[in-house]
Write a structure and sequence with these properties.
By secondary structure, this protein is an alpha+beta fold. The protein contains 36 helices and 28 strands. The chain binds adenosine-5'-triphosphate (ATP).
């Protein structure tokens, strides 16, 4: 249907200027669903055609909340020039050009032009960095974005939420995020949490009937709204408004767009930048003042030249590029994590991940493979093994090693498997020659086993589903109501679920076709069988049934699932993920505790925890034990317990809180809708990408694209690596800037000592404005960024987690920074002195030659410093060649410096003169002293350093204090 169809026009107001919004139905909650559907030109049984949907997307725009137009690129570029110091520099350049023009405009004004080029080059680099960081973050948001189930051309399909259009039929299920405002026309126990929109904390029940009178948002019970979440049941609804036209859009319009809050790390770096900025400006002022006082300013050009030096020093040494480099390094790190299947939604989570001290993980599907095979069936008449692997429905039913003959046992086994396949939402299908399960693998296991017995066709012909009570982690049961064609449509209640829970609802058992009372003795026997199967790491599930009592329906949950007839119990293999074991060992070595928090049977949980090395104890804390405990009791328990079984989602929340109260940084996994509060409360909520619901994904900080526990630990490793890299480039940038500032400061203050004082007592500047800016351009970008993308240090998982309150730059790091800066200044000034007549060393060169030597020495000193900065304590020669980017950046910077010194046209621009081989050797030898001096300091620090004293994060190659073995750590 084209968007111009008359039916759409029928809903228009009389204001044709805004056709997009007026084409949407007015107050659809007052109309019948059919009226709304026909108004929107949509057939509820088939949905829109793909062509119609894309025409509507064009017309109504993407379904996204955007309250502000995007900032154009040129404004973003200009923002990189918007710095008071840059204004000052540009003003000085303008003044210098004016003076040059007044004085006759003789030579080319190289200095002014070069400064302009460098300022623009810096802005371009800043812009490119920002754009790269933004692209990385946008790509992540895309990955983490939700999709919606819609009906298009009669087919159910998943589309990205941004592509949902008015007129689409939304298919809603438990755990789905509602992606647009929509009029509900079909419901089965549909409950929606609307707190985000209306503030109502309890989920609201939805129905289909039109309302009689205009009502407020919270009372529109036949509507679902963008930004809310389905907590229960299913439904279908026709989309009436998307994006900014939705109710959520109205709110977004009212609110200011808030930028993502800066992370603690970013805030600390901002503060360091500010403090250093002030210090640098004061020092620059002192340098300018000293030169002006000591010089005889004869012409305005002299004054402007000194001013330019001062301002250039301030521009170069104020670490204004730090926040940009930091954002880029975080964004690139987050992108690397995404390639490893860990999609981090906020940059701040990277820091928190690196500090995680406890990971609470689900078992099924995260620590295990979730490729389930049903291998045992225990019925009142005996126990059998089911052979065969994978989902291929080929296998035998054996008792001992013998096939079982026709008789009661085989019949009972058939009933258990049929029952489990009736209380079931999964589908077993053959696709491209492979047998696959769509839906819950636990349920799929029943379908495969039933097919092995050849019962599928007869079950499907005989039963028709007429109702259901969905599975939930709290209930641990799932029920369907089935009309039996062989018994005149008589309806049976068929339930499968956790044996301990289901058995409590059974009063009879079916033995050889006869119903018998379930005695206490039999209950004990059945539970002993369950324990035995669970002790073999099998996931256990029982099956029961009963005829539906007269007048009851699936809405009477409690009444229906009572007085049931027990059929039997199955054992399902769910092997541990092979990579999980290694990941657990890595985590324990990194002093991260692993807790298994599962809804499964305590013995199954304990066995798998043992197999994976999570716990050596048999002790398991169960959900019912947790219920008995108060918060203090729970705090005591979480200090030592590692396996929690038969827990419900609300227990997860209590566990998170108790762990946090003990000072832990907690990562917690979850998939179901009710896990969302625990994920939100955790420091790092981890949602499952494959099996997780939209609601958990939205509540989480990180989504695991592969649902794999090992991915969490890989992400922690990356998080720690990123943090270590941030420290590296901070060390590099700050020590290099200190070197520049001290060179200028000491050069001016000690001008008499090093021969910088000219005849008449005038002080020559140690370095020219263009040279200072060049050093900044050369070293602040390439090498700093290259350091930000180093692979994680070899020992990154051998250290305990960093405390979030620990400073990024600690005392030891500051000492290293100041030491290197000082040595840098001393070697640069020595080069200057060597080139000049007078001073401590007698030279013969001109001031230009001496400056070129000093300039080159300082550039190379900074390049040597790249290798120092990789660690506070490890030698620079350790893992020297692991970072190709760094070598590339250093080589490029070195070559550019050679060009600046040797190329005649650059000589004019930078006030340099070509150097001979001897001078080059002197410069490089002097510059290398920075490396040797840092090595010496590191050696002393390593010798003197007591392991426990300084932060373990500052010594990049030290082990944690205490030295507990991983196994004993797990008991801490
Ligand atoms: P984890 O929390 O580690 O993912 P889990 O998947 O076993 O573990 P739940 O999904 O809460 O946790 O399941 C708890 C129990 O409920 C299971 O041990 C099983 O006995 C039962 N169960 C699981 N899935 C179903 C289902 N689809 N139908 C009926 N019962 C189920």
């Amino acid at each position: 249907m084209s968007p111009e169809t008359p039916t759409l026009v029928a809903y228009r107001f009389d204001v044709p200027e805004t056709p997009v919004e007026t084409a949407l139905p007015d107050q659809p909650w007052l109309r019948s669903a059919d009226e709304v559907a026909s108004g929107l030109g949509c057939e509820t049984s088939r949905g829109l055609t793909p062509g119609d949907a894309s025409a509507r997307l064009e017309r109504f725009g993407p379904n996204r909340l955007e309250s502000e137009p995007p900032v154009p690129r040129w404004r973003k570029f200009l923002s990189h020039l918007a710095d008071p110091l840059v204004y000052l520099l540009l003003a000085a350049v303008v003044v210098s050009l004016a003076v040059w023009a007044i004085e006759g405009a003789e030579d080319v004004p190289f200095e002014a032009l070069v400064i302009l080029v460098i300022v623009i080059a810096n802005a371009i680099l800043g812009y490119v960095q920002e754009a790269r960081a933004e692209r990385a973050v946008a790509a992540l948001q895309e990955m983490a974005s939700t999709s919606a189930s819609v009906l298009r051309d009669g087919e159910e399909m998943q589309v990205p939420s941004v592509e949902v259009v008015p007129g689409d039929v939304l298919l809603l299920a438990e755990g789905d995020a509602v992606s647009a405002d929509a009029r509900v026309f079909d419901v089965a126990s549909l409950m929606v949490a609307e707190a985000s929109l209306t503030g109502e904390s309890e989920p609201v029940s939805k129905s289909t009937a039109p309302l009689d009178e205009p009502s407020s948002l919270g009372d529109r019970t036949n509507m679902v709204f963008n930004g809310t979440a389905v907590t229960r049941g299913r439904g279908r609804a026709i989309v009436t408004a998307t994006g900014m036209a939705s109710e959520m859009g109205n709110i977004a319009r009212l609110l200011d767009t808030t930028e993502e809050a800066r992370t603690p790390l970013q805030r600390e770096v901002d503060a360091i930048g500010r403090a250093l900025g002030i210090a640098v400006i004061i020092i620059s002022a002192v340098v300018v003042g000293t030169i002006l006082l000591g010089s005889e300013i004869r012409e305005p050009a002299d004054f402007v030249a000194v001013l330019l030096v001062g301002v250039s020093l301030a521009v170069a040494a104020v670490p204004e590029s730090l926040p940009a480099v930091l954002s880029l390094v975080l964004a690139l790190g987050v992108q690397r994590m995404a390639h490893k299947n860990a999609i981090v939604k906020k940059l701040s989570s990277v820091e928190t991940l690196g500090s995680a001290s406890v990971v609470g993980s689900d078992k099924t599907g995260t620590l295990t493979r979730s490729e389930m095979t049903l291998v045992k069936v225990a019925t009142p008449s005996g126990e059998v093994d089911v052979t065969g692997t994978g989902y291929r429905p080929e296998g035998e039913v054996l008792a001992g090693d013998e096939p079982i003959p026709e008789g009661p046992l085989l019949e009972e086994v058939g009933l258990v498997l049929m029952g489990g396949s009736l209380a079931n939402d999964a589908v077993l299908r053959r696709e491209n020659g492979e047998w696959v399960i769509h839906g819950d693998p636990t349920e799929g296991a029943f379908l495969v086993a039933e097919a092995k017995l050849g019962l599928t066709a007869s079950r499907e012909a005989r039963f028709r589903r007429v109702g259901e009570i969905p599975f939930s982690s709290e209930r641990k049961l799932m029920t369907t109501l089935q009309a039996d064609a062989e018994r005149d449509g008589q309806v049976d209640v068929v339930t499968k679920g956790a044996p301990d829970v289901l058995l409590a609802r059974c009063t009879l058992e079916l033995v050889a076709g006869e119903k018998r009372a379930l005695t206490e003795e039999r209950r004990r026997q059945i539970l002993a069988t369950v324990d035995r199967l669970a002790g073999q790491a099998l996931r256990t599930m029982a099956v029961a049934y009963r005829p539906l009592p007269d007048g009851a329906s699936s809405s009477d949950e409690d009444a229906v699932e009572q007085e049931m007839i027990y059929l039997g119990t199955v054992g399902i293999i769910d092997p541990p993920r092979p990579e999980a074991r290694a990941a657990v060992a890595d985590a324990l070595e990194a002093r991260i505790r692993i807790l298994m928090i599962t809804g499964d049977h305590p013995l199954t949980a304990a066995r798998i925890a043992g197999d994976l090395g999570i716990s050596e104890q048999e002790a398991v804390v169960t959900g019912s034990e947790l219920e008995e405990m108060d918060d203090d009791g729970l705090s005591a328990v979480v200090r030592s317990a590692t396996v929690f079984a038969r827990v419900a989602p609300e227990h997860k929340l209590r566990i998170v809180r108790a762990l946090q109260a003990e000072g832990n940084i907690v990562a917690m996994t979850g998939d179901g809708v009710n896990d969302a509060p625990a994920l939100k409360a955790a420091d790092i909520g981890v949602a499952m990408g494959l099996t997780g619901t939209d609601v958990t994904k939205e509540a989480s900080d990180m989504v695991l694209a592969d649902d794999n526990f090992a991915t969490i630990i890989a992400a922690v490793r990356e998080g720690r690596g990123i943090f270590a890299n941030i420290r590296k480039f901070l060390r590099f940038l700050l020590s290099s800037n200190t070197g520049e500032v001290l060179t200028m400061f000491l050069g001016v203050v000690l001008a008499g000592v090093i021969g910088l004082e000219q005849a008449g007592g005038a002080v020559a500047v140690p370095l020219l404005a263009t040279q200072i800016l060049w050093i900044n351009l050369l070293t602040d970008t390439g090498p700093a960024l290259a350091m930000g993308v180093e692979p994680p240090p070899h020992d990154v998982m051998l250290r305990p987690p960093r405390h979030l309150t620990e400073r990024v730059i600690d005392k030891e790091m500051w000492i290293g920074i100041i030491w290197v800066g000082l040595v840098m200044a001393v070697v640069t000034l020595t080069a200057l002195d060597l080139g000049l007549p007078g001073g401590l060393f007698e030279g013969t060169g001109t001031i230009d030659e001496a400056r070129t030597m000093a300039f080159t020495t300082l550039v190379f000193a900074q390049l040597f410093n790249c290798f120092n900065a990789r660690s506070d304590r490890s030698s620079a020669f350790r893992s020297l060649f692991t970072n190709g980017w760094l070598w590339g950046a250093v080589a490029l910077s070195g070559l550019l410096q050679v060009a600046v010194v040797q190329a005649p046209w650059l000589n004019q621009a930078f006030g340099t003169v070509p150097l001979g081989p001897r001078d080059w050797s002197i410069c490089i030898a002097l510059a290398s002293l920075v490396l040797w001096a840092a090595e010496l300091r590191k050696l002393i620090a390593r010798r003197l350093g007591t392991e426990g004293e300084a932060s373990v994060w500052s010594g990049d190659d030290r082990r944690a204090p205490g030295g507990q073995s991983p196994a004993s750590m797990s008991m801490l």
